[in-house]
Design goal:
The complex is a heterodimer of chains A (113) and B (113).
Chain A lengths: L3 E4 L2 E5 L4 E7 L7 E6 L6 E6 L5 E4 L2 E6 L4 E6 L8 E7 L9 E2 L3 E6 L1
Parallel strand pairs in A: 2-11
Antiparallel strand pairs in A: 1-3, 3-8, 4-5, 4-9, 6-7, 7-8, 9-10, 9-11
Chain B lengths: L3 E4 L2 E4 L5 E7 L5 E8 L3 E8 L6 E2 L6 E5 L5 E5 L8 E8 L8 E2 L3 E5 L1
Parallel strand pairs in B: 2-11
Antiparallel strand pairs in B: 1-3, 3-8, 4-5, 4-9, 5-6, 7-8, 9-10, 9-11
């Protein structure tokens, strides 16, 4: 049973455009939702994260939108750049007392000039 | 501060051979993890160690064993490698709970012929 569903699997965006990646979760006990960014040949690294007590979190060009009632959250990359080309993973955890992250299957983003 | 280190970076095995993947972290983290990454499958947890002296199965533990040698080191052993274990393996660590950033190593690319 996949607890975090991520879409799309791949995404091609023009430079300067907006990249949007969506995730949906099933477990209502999840209370922390990080996004990880992975460049080819490297390990994933934390990009941005959100708790469900806020509906949006912004860090530079990256924004997480969170909809608790729909059990969905999304990553928006504004003014997408070729350097943003990477694989993005959403994840979820119930945090306290848990030591595991549940990852989505990833989205490969290509930003073309 | 090297973060999370993994050895080797690349390995080719024949079916039935055994090997141990090594992982070490110098961040004084409590919990350590082993994941495998396959195209279209995202990051799947093999085993984790919430603290020194404990290990638990993740989503895909069959065919693997682990040892938490001390607080710094967490190794993954393949006793009899199979082609289905061809993958990229990532070690990760985290301080205290999964509310904190999970730090990943650079990965080991394993091919089983």
């Amino acid at each position: 049973q996949q607890q975090v569903k991520q879409s799309p699997q791949s995404l091609i965006v023009q430079k300067g455009g907006i990249s949007i990646i969506n995730c949906a979760y099933e477990n209502t006990a999840f209370d922390y939702f990080p996004w990880y960014q992975q460049f080819p040949g490297k390990g994933p690294a934390l990009l941005i994260a959100i708790r469900p007590d806020v509906s949006e979190k912004k860090e530079g060009r990256f924004t997480i939108s969170f909809n608790k009632s729909a059990k969905q959250f999304s990553l928006h990359i504004m003014d997408s750049q070729p350097g943003d080309s990477a694989t993005y993973f959403c994840a979820a955890t119930r945090g306290a007392g848990s030591y595991q992250l549940t990852f989505g299957k990833g989205t490969k983003l290509s930003v073309i000039p | 501060n090297a973060g999370v280190t993994q050895t080797p970076k690349f390995q080719v095995l024949k079916t039935g051979q055994s090997m141990t993947l090594q992982c070490a972290q110098d961040m004084n983290h409590n919990s350590m993890y082993w994941y495998r990454q396959d195209p279209g499958m995202g990051l799947r947890l093999i085993y984790y160690s919430a603290s020194e002296g404990t290990t638990d199965k993740g989503e895909v533990p069959n065919g693997y064993n682990v040892s938490r040698l001390n607080k710094r080191e967490f190794s993954l052993r393949l006793e009899s490698a199979a082609p289905s274990q061809t993958s990229v393996y990532f070690c990760a660590s985290i301080w205290k709970s999964s509310y904190n950033e999970q730090f990943f190593g650079p990965g080991t690319r394993l091919t089983v012929l």
